Amino acid sequence: MEPERVVDADDLERLAKLLTDKRQLAEQYYARACRLVGQAQVTPLAAMLRWAGDTATELGNRAAIVRAAEKGGDPFGALSAFGLSTALGTVSGEDRTRLTKDLKSVIARGATARPEQRTAAIRKFFEKLTAAERASLAIEQPDVVGRLDGAPATVRYAANRLLIERAVAHEQKDLAALKATDPKNPQATLLEKRVARMTEFLQPRVTGDGRSVPRQFLLFDPAGDGRVAEVFGDLATAKHVAVMVPGITNRLDNYDSIANDAVALLKDRASGRELPESAVITWLGYDTPEFGDSVLPAKAEAGAPALHSFRAGLEAARGAKFALFAHSYGTLLSSKALQEGTPFDSVVFMGSPGLGPTIKSAADLKLGSGTQVFAMRAPGDWVSYTEAHGRDPAEMAGIRRLATGRSSGHSEYYTPKNAGLDNLQTILTGDGCVQTFMGSPKLDDEQFGAANVRVLVKELQSRVPQWKVGELATAFEPIITGVMNGSTDLPTLTALTTKTLADSGLGGYFAPQDVAQIVGRSLTEAGLDQR
Rounded distance, CA 126 to CA 120, Å? Predict the structure, then answer.
């Protein structure tokens, strides 16, 4: 069997330089030969010169690819997948050093600038580069370029594909080691799911018309729970773009559910093909909370600037319209980003726990002129019923509440062949009329116990310090579910509340009479019988 060849980038570059130097000498002989015997007689020498030049360039290209591949992944494949130049031999080592320095300088200068100014500077920087230089940055600095708002989309796609390949290899090793030493460790199951998701990222996506296309990521960061932003459709030609912002408990390992919603949103109900001139972006670009800390605004406040920057860096066809589809805790984050001036032509809040305590109407968001604002609340969506972060936008002035069809609960807003999804597609494309909500405005007409939950949550939250609110939310999730299932009589609810507070260590904030008063008030103000 032929032994494995070890390719050294330095050797390739030295050979390329040697060919280039010898070619310069050969060109002198070629010129003299043409004068002595005529150009027709030295055709073989001309062919040799072309060969030397082409070979030197190809060796340089291979050296650059090998150098990047030493860090992991398939840089040549990443560039080729998105039509980027693989002719990297024209970018010398000095060029790479200069590019790295210049990009670092541009990023540093924009650190304190507004997102629009910062991303414009990044965009201008890349516009001045050659195709080979852009490709070189993608594979030399994928961890910087892959998340760089304002950089060309295809360059980010290639950089993130390389990062995904490296992450898969790294976590596969971690998984194998964990299974060998501690196979029953719950972390092994999580790692398996993460590796499965990332492996899927490297597989082509089949479009509605049967084409196989590489998956396109504008963000990939496996650290912690993971962060991802994926484009479905052709962003460069799209005239209608939707950015989806998900809520609690969304992570890299369960990202497939978000991707499935994006596919459903982009799929035309009649033809099964993708909606024309449209693109959908899933933006899981922040550290989403678990149930316990979802009642705190900290992660929304931290994530809002990232969404603003991401939007500022997006490019689509001239005159494209951008829609923001926010769900659950993502509505709170989106509210804060909108208040910072993040521009969208239309906004939909779905299953919202509130947009912040100061937001009472659409006017408080201070949106640009002409921005349309909608809200959806499906029956049984108890996250909306809690109003843990302020008023439900489905009940706000200036916000049009939309029909959700047969959707129920908190996670069915993208159900195919349903009024809710039809409304979202209408808003995305601007084609047709939306279906408005026509039901009763009373909470308990759509879900028994909804008003009770709203009052109970507010009363409980008002009695504990802010840093304990997360623990309170985690402890009371089963009780909230029980209330909505009909466990609303005073003795049962009082006993459950007292026991839950004691078990969670929060009972010290409540006297026995406090519990009875809170439960009684929640039932009375909700209009329920206390017997």
Answer: 10
What angle do helix axes 450-461 and 469-484 make, rounded to 10 degrees? 160
- What values do phi and psi take at 25, rounded to 5? -70, -40
Q: Tell me the pLDDT band of 531, cut-offs 50, 70 and 90.
A: very low
Gap between the Cα atoms of 383 and 408, Å rounded: 12
Q: What is the DSSP string of 311-353?
A: HHT---STT-EEEEEEETHHHHHHHHHHHTT---SEEEEES-S
Contact 333, 245 (CB under 8 A): yes
Nearest to 456 by CA among 439, 472, 438, 435: 472
Predicted confidence (pLDDT) per residue in 64-118, tens digit: 666 666 678 888 899 999 999 988 777 877 888 899 999 999 999 999 999 999 9
Residue with tokens 């879900």: 447
Tokens coding 361: 């109407």
Q: How far is CA 149 from the centre of its chain?
A: 13
Reported as a single tens digit per residue, the pLDDT across 383-418 is 999 999 999 999 999 999 999 999 999 999 999 999
Output Rg (C-alpha) for the chain, integer angstroms.
29
d(CA 220, CA 162): 10
Beta-carbon neighbour count of residue 350 at 10 Å? 33
Alpha carbons 265 and 348: distance in angstroms, whole number? 13
Q: 48-83 b/e with 16+ CB inside 10 Å = b? A: ebeebeeebbebbbbbbbbbbbeebbbbbbbbebbe
Non-local (6+) Cβ contacts of 285 within 8 A are: 219, 227, 228, 229, 303, 306, 307, 310
